[in-house]
Design brief:
Elements lengths: L16 H7 L2 H17 L1 H17 L2 H54 L8 H13 L3 H7 L3 H11 L1 H48 L1 H6 L3 H53 L5 H23 L1 H17 L18 E9 L9 E9 L3 E5 L6 H8 L7 E6 L2 E2 L5 H5 L2 E4 L10 H5 L8 H10 L3 H5 L18 H13 L5 E5 L7 H16 L3 E5 L11 E6 L2 E7 H9 L2 H6 L3 E2 L4 E2 L4
Parallel strand pairs: 3-8, 3-9, 6-7, 7-8
Antiparallel strand pairs: 1-2, 1-4, 4-5, 9-10, 11-12
Length: 590
Amino acid sequence: MSTFARPSSGTKPPRSQLGAALLACRHAFVGIGMISGVLNVLTLSGSFFMLQVYDRVIPSHSVPTLLGLVVLVIMLYLFQGFLDVIRSRVLVRIGASLDESLGRQVYDAVVQQPLNSPARGDGLQSLRDLDQIRSYLSSLGPTAFFDAPWMPLYLVICFAFHPLIGITAIIGAVILFGLTIATELGTRTPSKVAADALSKRNRLAEASRRNAEVLHAMGLAPRLALKWEEANTAYLTAQRQSSDVAGSLSSASKITRMVLQSGILALGAWLVIHQEASSGIMIASSILMSRALAPVELAIGHWKNFGSTRQSWRRLEQLLPTLSSQQPPMPLPAPTESLAVEALSVAPPGSQRLTVQNASFTLQAGQGMGIIGPSASGKSSLARALVGVWRPVKGTVRLDGAALNQWCPNALGAHIGYMPQDVELFSGTVAENISRFEEGSSSDAIIAASRAAGVHDLILNLPQGYETQIGENGTALSAGQQQRIGLARALYGDPFLIVLDEPNSNLDSEGDQALTNAIQGVRDRGGIIIVVAHRPSALASIDHILTLGNGQVQAFGPKDEVLNKVLNKPVVQASRPPLSLATNRPSGPL
């Protein structure tokens, strides 16, 4: 059933994952509610202390009574402070619990989102949203909602002192509630605009950071800086509008509370003059008024943070349902026989434009296939579909007869080696990257993959060998070194299916020979290897060729036979450099 489907009559709508995570903390929230109740009762200590001092101690001149009241109120204040610390720590732990419950799911959703839909917004926004929710839950903001239900208690006591005092307190509460509503209406739109502008600014800054070399070499830095300044100005403008509204209304609420507190004090004095109240009631009612309106003022003061948290909540509620929650399928035996592609059509995530249409072919264990064709013919799209990165629009990819979706993704990953066009290594050691960060990986398996890729000697020449820290995005290595270590990562664990997308784009002659040996080694051990190639050197150890044009298979079969067909098609020749008749291979890039 669709996530947006309306539930049938008599059934409850499914609870969101965020709601379920908060519900798991319900006992902690109940505890906070009980602590808040005790705290609000203890808050009356100051008012009644003043009441007793002015109405009993001063008229009676009783020092023992004063000392007893001082000791009692100090004990109550200490207990109140202890409970306040407990409440604050419980809120912090609720925020941490929410993060622990959802952190992995949010991370998985962030990683899977580019595979299911086109990239939109800041890629890390979801993690920031979770941080925002946790931060708000750990702040004083939520305490306002736990204290607000106790406002009637203070108002009832104010009425008990005198009806006019109670009426004045109610008028003050209504005014502050009106300011709260005005804060909500005034900050909603600017806060949303500010969040969107912030996301745009961060995306531009991150893109500039990743491409710092291009910006510097081609003089683009000043121009990109102007675009960043425009985005930053838009963010600051929206942020300023939101802050101005929230700050103005927060100040208005503070001034209103101060005016009401002084007004209630003046009213108490008027009642004392007319002998309708005691001087203790005058002081106590002023304190009670301040305490009764404190939750509203606190809520207004944290309203901006609350609005940001609410937006974060909504974005996460939209994101988390996109994460696949299906039960993992039954484990299947490791593939050892064949790869079959049946009427496969592929489109980029979130797009309806097919980049591969009705592709079909079969490879047996020990065979290798090269995919050639002009640029934008669908070669990389096909490679992504073969390893399960992009889901087919229609058709199927099968390993030993089992469709890829019948495999658990983590289990399938052990049987697949993949090297995309742009090899990106992760922060860590060379050994960790080759072993795919597998826990308990053996050094023998790592070295075997390195030798298969012909990169073992290269790694030994690094400063710390296999323990060399690669750095963020592999900045400690050259492009050719990254590509060869990426090949070793693809070969790690002797996977059955290996797909290499332009694996020799940054390789020298030595790297080309190592690649040829690696391809032959995969075939010799009974694996299947597929190479997307523009340079003919990558096809030396390949026995089958598949040509693509406009997303459709133009030819598939033994290498020499297909290359002869390609050679005899003038249309295809026009889109690629001529082939060498002597070698039946293209003389230039394929």
